[in-house]
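Researcher: Please translate sequence to structure tokens.
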Amino acid sequence: QLQLVESGGGLVQPGGSLRLSCAASGFTLDYYAIGWFRQAPGKEREGVSCISGSGGRTNYVDSVKGRFTISRDNAKNTVYLQMNSLKPEDTAIYYCAANVANTGDYYWPLFITDFGSWGQGTQVTVSS
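Model: Translation complete:
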């Protein structure tokens, strides 16, 4: 069974950095594009970034371009989201999920309905 587990969230001051990890078990990660999503209180879940199964294609929502970097280590079955220059508006629960609709690839902007095996989420709070 496909399982994803996020980690790395926490409380950070504005301008700080965090690295989120999305660890997979029960399947070979390189078959799937992996997306990072976030959901702030009272807001809809938003696609933040995605990486193809090979790692050769990445996309970012405009609000995080130049600050966030998605990467993957298929040997470790893990996808990362490096978040720099964090802002209070980045505060949210961050989730990773596997694109189960398109083998190794994805459509951008992300369609949430293409994704499954959602992790439990990790809280990111940016505050002074």
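Researcher: Any highlights?
Model: The two ends are 40 Å apart (CA to CA).
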